[in-house]
Amino acid sequence: MPFSDYKTALVTGASSGMGAAIVERFCKEGLKVHALARSGDLLQELSKRTGCIPLAVDVRDLKAITQLTQEVQFDILVNCAGINFPGSIVSAEAEQIDAEIGVNLQSAMHLVRLIMPGMLKRDRGHIINITSIAAIYNFVGSNTLYHTTKAAMHMLSRQLRVDAIGKRVRVTEICPGRVATDIFAHVNGTDATTARAQFIDGFELPLASDIADAIAFAVAAPIAVNISNMEILPTLQVAAGLTTVKPEPV
Description:
This protein is an alpha/beta fold.
């Protein structure tokens, strides 16, 4: 289905990184894009650059997103909002568990619940879930909460295709590996310069725009084609390895 068959899109987590790149690409394709995130200043800058409609809203604000979906008929939904706290579940605070489930999973499920019925009725629409290779693979030292919520989004993506059977509503899951964005500073609780030196500088990594291009490819595919899942990794990154440790002395 060409982009011309779609008119409107909602992108969450839109203020920076992959979300902002997706907004920019969709605007270039002529879509009326609603860009939703908490960072109002960044959204205003994005709006000036792209012409998107900025929505400074916490994606967990159910009242606000419900009102939005009642006012606007969306043809494309991109669930890109996500957070990731450092540490594992054994060191997690209760508020961190609630926040990761709320942003990474619950908000996306609410948006699908609110938007997908209209897509089914119109026999047209595309839901795009940005997960992670953390949805599929385990990494030592990575956040249990992030893996768990992304794995749930992986299964949600698969199940939505079942829920849409018989209708031309497509579901695409994007599973990025390491991408050159500012997320690493948030995950590791360090400043942006330190995080960039550790995780980005010197590596050959996909850019946020590369992820946006992949999404555009999936959206522009013929209506008979549903690109259901893409793992997008750096050429020099593999998801492999087995960790074995010796027990600590008693």
